[in-house]
């Protein structure tokens, strides 16, 4: 499978200027491609093909006075920008036809130099390389210093240079991994586990383990409020406002990075210790429209499940998602009797049928494991009850849903 490995870049002043030129040229070519497509649509003409756009917007444009500066950057960067425009239109049309999964996509829009994220991509034919001293040499930019946090498992096929909203630079390498080697790197185990994701605890496992919620956003709220207040008091267009904006962006980046690191560490531990994992298919978009929205976004359940999913595929583990309407909080894990919906303030309850006292989250995690077909009966056969629709009053998973970035 293909993964991305991201590393921090530290370009010097001249390299930052060269990267800014490359970002700008790629953006102009993308916008020219969108404009050419839109003009053809309004004139009711066939869309120009990729080869025609490449000739008109890159090769011929370099010969004109207005676009002569396109020759100052690598031609591969411009060609990849055209590919991005093609991909954007392809995804848009697939979304219109209903052949693309996920939410509906709008038509490609013009890019702005004020966008929070700027990126350019170099493929193998751009002749970029990693020097013996560990620097990343990019055409017409130079040898850029890289902070290597780990070794690349195989030779990368392409590299994308990204500048984020906080002004940080990253190199994102595309790696083709060997599934057999990755699976062999994991210890053999026959353990299975069910996971109940929540807000009181980030995750409760079917074996009784409770993992506290770090609440990264809540802990940084005071700092974020002060930075945002300082930004609102700066005059628009001033240099001090730009400094204040960077301060806000960096504060938010610290929160997002800490949350992503927590998700990666926890997911790696779960994948290493278990052969199969059961988890609810939460629809986070629904909860994000309630009074719990900030806490739900702070937890980052969707990102965590997505990381779990790709790591399970990579390392030969099994991840089972159960339906979001499965009544895991209503069913007694001991006798299987459905005891009805319960408000969120009830953390413990007693089964009216068998008298078992349940911790709400632990009981739900056991039911997730059972519903995923990972529980085993006394005779050694897997246990998987018939699916039962949850009552609409049950709180926690109704109507709920990256690029997380791979580790």
Helix/strand order: EHHHEEEEEEHEEEHHEHHHEEEHEE
Q: Unreliable segments (pLDDT under 50, ≥5 consecutive)?
A: 377-407
* Content of β-strand: 15-25%
Could you state the oligomeric state of the chains shown? Answer: single chain
**Morphology:** elongated
Helix count? 10
Structural class: alpha+beta
Largest sheet: spatial strand order: 2-6-7-1-5-4-3
* Count of β-strands: 16
Largest sheet: 7 strands, antiparallel
Distance between the termini: 13 Å
User: Radius of gyration in whole Å, from Cα?
Assistant: 25 Å
Q: What is the helix content?
A: 25-40%
Would you tell me the overall average pLDDT?
88
Key features of this structure:
single chain; 407 residues; disordered C terminus
Q: Can you offer a commentary on this structure?
A:
By secondary structure, the protein is of the alpha+beta class. Helix content is 39%, strand content 18%. It contains 10 helices and 16 strands. Residues 377-407 have low confidence and may be disordered.
Topology overview:
Blueprint: E1 2-10, H1 13-42, H2 50-59, H3 75-97, E2 118-123, E3 129-130, E4 136-138, E5 142-147, E6 158-163, E7 169-176, H4 179-185, E8 192-197, E9 201-205, E10 210-212, H5 216-232, H6 239-273, E11 276-280, H7 284-287, H8 293-299, H9 301-314, E12 318-322, E13 348-350, E14 357-359, H10 360-371, E15 375-376, E16 382-383
Parallel strand pairs: 8-11, 11-12
Antiparallel strand pairs: 1-5, 1-7, 2-6, 3-4, 4-5, 6-7, 8-9, 9-10, 13-14, 15-16
Helix pairs in contact: 1-3, 2-3, 5-6, 6-9
